[in-house]
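Morning F.,

Quick status update on the modeling queue. The single chain you submitted on Monday has been processed. Sequence for confirmation:
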Amino acid sequence: MFDSAYAHRLIAEDEPAVVEVENTMGTAPVLVSCDHASNYIPKKLNDLGLGHSDLSRHIAYDIGALNLSRVLADKLDAPLIHSGYSRLVVDLNRHLDDPGSIPIVSEGTEIPGNHPLTQIQKQRRIDELFWPYHNKFSHTLDGFQSKGIYPAILAIHTFTRVYHGLVRPWHVGVMWDTDDRMAVPFIHNLRQQTDFKIGDNQPYTALDPLGYAFDVHARGRKLPHLFIEVRQDLVSDEVGVMRWATILYQAVKPLLENKNLYCKLELA
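Structure tokens below.
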């Protein structure tokens, strides 16, 4: 049945949820997040003028990240929050004044459906996708804190092996700045248990504005956090996902057993 309430909306009634929280009964004081979980484009946007091959690339979503997040959340018995739409519509981990928030070009590929856009068209994407996701993120964290818990945030992303023709040598990277409660021992644990090349603020750095989720939900609330990037070809199938979920779990589990971790970071 046609619902007139959806007539002027970007997202139709029969399309995926904008945000989902899974494993809501998880008992760990941890929230796993996956901002770039999906490559789905609202039907009204006609795939943004892109073909299937482009929508299957990293420009549209973090390949392998959702499956990795699900297995890790299950191992940790933690809730997982994840997006339902492509970052090409609006990037949930970029500030709204960032030129890449609604990209015109991504990794050399023009995005026809993203220009020209009126301010009303941009605002519709923000109102229907960006704010519902981050409001749910905040609400979930509020639920922890209402119980006196300052949860750890584990943000899962993936990155490409080659970027603008340059080969990235890292297998996994960890982004952090002044809060080293989790990042430094996590990197140490990864290096102890594997021969993989671990990026310390590589392939991205948190010393620059890393993204909305990092700045607002983690650093803004002074919560313990890990922002992890796994190379996407390592988690592109079930075998790789299970392998890396186990690697990450074994490196992070000892940190999460420290009850002194779950507090606000107060810097001098």
